[in-house]
Structures are given as structure tokens and as C-alpha cells.
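Minutes, project check-in

Agenda point 3 was the complex the collaborators sent over. CS summarized: two entities, 553 residues total, and the question is how they sit relative to each other. Sequences were read into the notes so everyone works from the same version.
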Amino acid sequence: MANTTDKPKTGGAVQTTGHAWDGDIQEFNNPLPTWWIWAFYLTVAFAVIYWILYPAWPMGKGFTTGVSEVTFESGGKEVTTHWNTRARLAHEMQASDEAQRQREYLERVASADFNTIFGDADMMAFAQSTAKGIFGDNCAPCHGSGGAGVTALFPNLADDDWLWGGSVDDIQTTIQHGRRGYMPPFKQTFNEQQLADVTDYVLGLSGHQVDPEAAKRGQAIFQGETGGCYYCHLTDGTGRKSQGAANLTDAIWTMIDVPGAADMDAKRRLVSGVISNGVTRIMPPWDGRLSPEQIKLLSVYVHELGGGQ
Amino acid sequence: MKHESLEINSGLLILFTLIAISIGGLAEIIPLYYIDDTVEKVDGVRPYTPLELRGRDIYQREGCYTCHSQMIRPFRDEHLRYGHYSLAAESKYDHPFQWGSKRTGPDLARVGEKYSDAWHVAHLEAPRSVVPESIMPGYPWLLENELDYTSIEKRMRALRMTGVPYALTEEENQANVDKYGPEVAAKLDITRADDSLIEQAIARNYDGDPSRLTEMDALVAYLQMLGTLVDFSKYEQGHFAEFR
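CS then shared the predicted structure for the full assembly.
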């Protein structure tokens, strides 16, 4: 290496700047490739064009706004402003091709009643594709992407058992306003014997083999003022829809996995647990978060998940 | 002036280096003096209540921000999925803010009141128990840990120094009453922080267990208020473009 510095490089392929330090330390001058230089000039030109078109330089209290403009409608008035992403969004939501095509359908959905929507293949296809995305973000976290729900927390939307009613109008009301399901805890009200009796009566309602004597005593509590269960679950146990009370006569359980329990004792423990502790379940309202048309489409989608009535 | 004179004169080199660097620095610093013009004037934004503030601390402790941003950008797809884009005003009391553009999980800027408390509890404890597709880790200790709020007053005092209007004097409290109403002002009073924290936790019982005050209570209280302060139905579409 030392040898190479002995001979100062002059001429040849690599130019020097002509600077020399300590007699023999030189500075090479390797020019940048031509294509790189031109690419650099292009970026400079791009920047200048950008400054002219778009907001760029801060100036005192303001900034250069650029000559590019966006027009959108706000409060019934047409507003034209310098280019910015917020105005651009308003414009896109109102006037982009996608928004206009979607609005065409949304207006049809808004003016149609549910029967018309169900009878119109075109609108149904729109409902299915649009509401799938809405359901995925808003509903699926609780009810699952297929609507199967989670036992004890979130009801199954794909079966034909409905706590709050399964007509498409009921479903729409549920989505709009949300639901607050409440069953009081009975552990202070019932003694152990009463709890066991009501448990047997409740299990008997759905056809389980129970102790008939206990069930009879349970029936008196259920149908009487001691328990008052019939207020919400009705005398026949089919459940008052306006209260979101469960139908106790079918084999579908939303709070506990009765069919999956190992034996009658396990089933009894599950049922008496619910009676003791009560139920509080809340579904938030979607009015405001979603538009009325979106809620309508979503109602159709949920109705069509499998169990709509 | 020749380039060589810069290279061989260190005093001159230092001077010109400082000039070059300060241009970049000024471009970043000067706009901060005009920041008031870019924070939208909007109703409803208030500082966090003591319980929410503890929740926010837990949010940061657990590193939620490494996967979740709190910044909805003004794009059509984000608007359709998450709702109205985030305003600067909505994070003006955030120290530090939780913006970001890298999302492994969804944006949380408007997750408040979107799902029920019970969902948040189940989901934070074991995400796949409610969302089988989820890749989020579980945070079961939030339900086990009692909420430590002994330092809440100090935390609020520190934020007060940065300009968050938590009240320490009667005068400041009165200013909050005028601005936010007595109910909210009571929650922003540093001297009553312990009481209002407990009161809020009991009133809603976020974690579903009324017998205990856990870290879950605080975190869910925080999550359930995110993005809920501004009522966007009061503003015309495109209204906030005037702040740009």
C-alpha cells in the first residue's frame, strides 16, 4: 500500500482536485454518474412543481397554499379551497366514482322497505357485499365472523332462536338502539331448597328428566310471586321478547352449555348458577356510528345469516 | 468565496455548518409557535379523568401502542371503517400522543363505546376466546392486579405542568367549572382525584367484578372513552378542512 502513495496520480482515468496536503496527500475527483446527476435534477424539478401545486412553504403566520384546488359541498354550499387531505376526503366521499355508484344503491335501499329489498336480487347482492364489511368490523368481534356468538357473553345470530325478536324490523331496532339484557340475581331471594326446585322446573321445561316433586314446587315459585320468573319468561317459559328473556322450553342455551354438560348434576349446577348470579348483557347502540342505510343493510345481512324470521 | 477557504479555515467551517443545520432546525421549530392555529376549535374535548388516566398509563405500560395506532387518517377507506378522521384537538391533552401509521391491530382512536365492557374484559384476558382469528396476546393479569392509584395526584400534577388543565387551586377549579361544567370539573380536581377515581370505577364497574378495583377497570374506562368526546354530527362534512 505504501508504494502506491509514492507516485502521485496525474492524468489517467481519475482526476484529482489539485489539492495536496503534506506534499503527497491528494484529493481524487470522481464525478457522479451522469444518470444519477439527471435523476437528482429531476427530483429538484419535481419539488418545484410540487411547491407550485400544493401547500408547501411556511410563511409567517400562513403558508404557500399552492394553485391546486378542491371543491366540495359543506352545509348546502359549494366550498372551494386549496388542496388538502381533509377537503380531498370530503370531495371523495361526495363525488368520487365509487361514492356515486354506492350512493345510487344506498338511495334505493333508503327508499325501499325490507320486503322490496328481499325481493330484489340486485339490492340483496349489494346488501350482502356491503354489510359483510360492516359486520366484520362492528359485529364480528363479539358475535364471531359467522355470527355464532360466544356462550355466556354474546348470542348466536345464525340460529333461529332470538332473545329480542328475529324479524328484520326487530333486528334493525336492536342494532339502532343496542340492548340491555338483565336478569336479577336470585341468591338473596331463594334459599337452597327453592333454588334447587326452580332449577329442576326450568330443566323440565326443555324436556329433561327431573324430579317431578321438586319441579312442582319449583313451578309454584316460578309462576308465583316468590320468584316472579314468569314476568319475563312468561308462564309457558317461552320468554318475553320485549325483555330479551330467553325461551326456556327449547334446547338452545345462550348463557350456559347445558347440552354439553356431562350429566344431570352438571346441568343443574349450570342452571342454578345463572339463577343465583343473574345475567347482565349489554349491546351498544349503532345509531350515529353507522348511517341509517348501513343499519338497514346490516339488518338484512344478520337476518340472512341463517335464522331470520 | 472558494470552497477551499471553507475547508482550510475551521472557524469559518464551524460557522457555515451551524447556519446549514439551523435552517433545518428552524423549519421544525418555527411552526410550533403557530400550533394554536392548527388545533381545531371544537367542543367536548376534556382531559382524562383520574381513572382513565391510570388506564392510559397501563395502556402504555403494556405497549399497546406498538400494535395499535390512535390516528384515523383522512382517507375514504379509513373513514368508512373507523369513522371521522382524528383531529389534532382530540389528542391535545395526550403526553405523549398515541398517533402512528404502523398497525398490527386495528386503529383504536374511536373504539370507545363501540363494544361492550364485557367484550373488552373477555378480549383483553384471552383474545381468542372471543375473536378466534386474533393474534393479540392475552393480558390476564389486568384482572388479577389491584389498581395502584397512590400516585394519581403526582401524575396529574406532572401533566398540569405541561399545560393540561387539572385544577390545583380554587381558581383553576372554577375555570374548569365554567369550561366543562361542574360534573367534569370535579373529576379534573387534583385534590379530589382519589375519590373521583373510585367513584367512577364503582359507578360503571367496568371489569364486571364489583368487589375489586383492578387494572382492568382503569384500562377499559380509558378504552371506552377513546374518540367519544367530540360530537361530529354537529359539524358539516368538510368543516374541519378550514383548519388546513
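Noted in discussion: Residues 96-178+292-309 of chain A form a domain with the Cytochrome Bc1 Complex; Chain D, domain 2 fold (CATH 1.10.760.10).
Follow-up: revisit at the next meeting once the mutant set is ready.
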